[in-house]
Amino acid sequence: MIEHILKASLERGRVITIIYNGESGISGRNIKVLEFKGDKVKAYCYLRKQIRYFKIENILSAEYCYFKRKAV
Q: Where are the domains of the chain?
């Protein structure tokens, strides 16, 4: 299921939310997948505001990100 959502992000340009187990611990990230590179994904990370690489095996969960609109 995780790879399906990662591929959908790449194909449709959708922002997704992942829970990632990285070197500094577990964190939540909003990302947009740009490319698959072997066992990693290249993605824009909205937390760090830069392109990052994420090991697929370290992605604990992934779901579509739904932004709430501000009331006008």
A: 2-64
What is the CATH topology of the domain spanning 2-64?
A: SH3 type barrels. (2.30.30)
pTM of this prediction? 0.87
What are the average pLDDT values for consecutive 10-residue runs of the chain, which has 72 residues? 94 96 94 96 96 97 77 50
Return phi, psi of residue 3, to 5°.
Answer: -65, -35
